[in-house]
Amino acid sequence: MAGLPVIVVEDDPFTRLIPIVLDPKSPDAHRAAFADFMAHDEPDFDGWIKRVRDGSPGLYPADVRMVASQEEMRAALKDAGALVVESLNVGPDDLAAAPALKVVQKFGIGLRNIDTAACAAKGMTVLTIRRRANISCAEHALALMLMLARKLETVSGLVTPARAKAAGLELRPFGRPYTPGGNYPRVGGTRALSGATIGIIGLGEIGREIALRAGAFGMRVLYHQRTRAPEAEERELKATQVPLVTLLSESDWIMPQLPTLPSTRDLLGRDEFARIKPGGCIVNVANAAIINRDALLEALRAGRLGGAALDVHYQEPVADDDPLLGFDNVILTPRMAGSPRHNGLNDFEELITGLARELVK
């Protein structure tokens, strides 16, 4: 495909949208799979592709090279005009292998893996994108937290005597000449978020979005990760780095936000659950493997946890007899955190049109 723009892209389930839009070599099965994935939110997937191509004149057709490692990336860069990365490092040695490179696009906003000074020295533009799907993940995490805190699954519909009785409650009138009348089913155990402590394990892109929103609720924000965040970021988020044991023992709400790696599997096991503040709750929209399943079930059965809300699961779809379905203080949602699909579609429309502005001048 000589003469076409060359774009090197770090392989990720979502960045696989890029070759569908820009590379005519992309298999029909690849396009059909994404069309099916998007159909419930974007039934005209082909129309979306055409709109993005029309908004990126001169960029289609392109030679899109998907890479999965540093070695593959460096080998593919020799005639590339653009590089799209999420977690792969971009340093002086990589840039030396890319004499035609004009733009480096981070699939996200954090630039810790990109040597921006080295890029600037070579006159390369570095672009970022605040991913809408990450924002939605944070919104979903906060929604799950609110559901547990306010017992919304329990109280939804408890507005009639018959429904309250079916739930084992009784609608008895309060002494209204003397008292307010709120919570007339007398549901106990609800919580306020203001003044509570949230512990975020991994202050990455989604963790950061969660912290921003938790601060708006007036929550104390703790975080744990191996590398301390820049002081300016800590000030912005009003977040304090602490050891994991401190986070577990002081947090009312625990949110793991780590990738699926051998080092993160079963990060929260029996020992960690034993350290969790009594009544603490866990909300997981990241990946199921972070939390040891047996340890989670044991903590729920023992009543040590105030509740759990999971958008990611050990088996998907979840089995009908999964014991997690039997707890009143467990909320399970079917991987909804990043939805709607327009989050990803809008992200990649912005990303691709941005590349076109840099490459086609």
What is the strand and helix layout of this fold?
Elements: E1 6-10, H1 17-22, H2 28-38, H3 45-54, E2 63-67, H4 70-76, E3 82-85, H5 92-96, E4 103-106, H6 116-121, E5 125-127, H7 132-150, H8 152-155, H9 161-166, E6 197-201, H10 205-216, E7 220-224, H11 231-237, E8 239-241, H12 244-250, E9 253-256, H13 270-275, E10 281-284, H14 293-302, E11 307-310, E12 330-332, H15 342-359
Parallel strand pairs: 1-2, 1-3, 3-4, 4-5, 6-7, 6-9, 7-8, 9-10, 10-11, 11-12
Helix pairs in contact: 7-10
What distinguishing features does this structure have?
12 strands; 14% strand; seven-stranded parallel beta sheet; Rossmann fold; 361 residues; alpha/beta; five-stranded parallel beta sheet
| Order of H and E elements | EHHHEHEHEHEHHHEHEHEHEHEHEEH
Low-confidence stretches: none
CATH fold label of the largest domain = Rossmann fold
| Total of helices | 15
DSSP strand (E) fraction?
5-15%
Task: Write down the domain tally.
Answer: 2
Strand count: 12
Shape: elongated
Secondary structure: helix percent? 25-40%
Report, as a whole number of angstroms, the end-to-end distance. Answer: 20 Å
Task: Give a structural overview.
The protein is α/β, with parallel strands linked by helices and 361 residues long. The chain has two domains: 6-128, Rossmann fold (3-Layer(aba) Sandwich); 134-151 and 189-332, 3-Layer(aba) Sandwich (Rossmann fold). Helix content is 37%, strand content 14%. It is built from 15 helices and twelve strands. The strands form two sheets. It has a seven-stranded parallel beta sheet with strand order 8-7-6-9-10-11-12, sandwiched between helices. Strands 2-1-3-4-5 form a five-stranded parallel beta sheet, with helices on both faces. β4, α6 (116-121) and β5 (125-127) form a beta-alpha-beta unit.
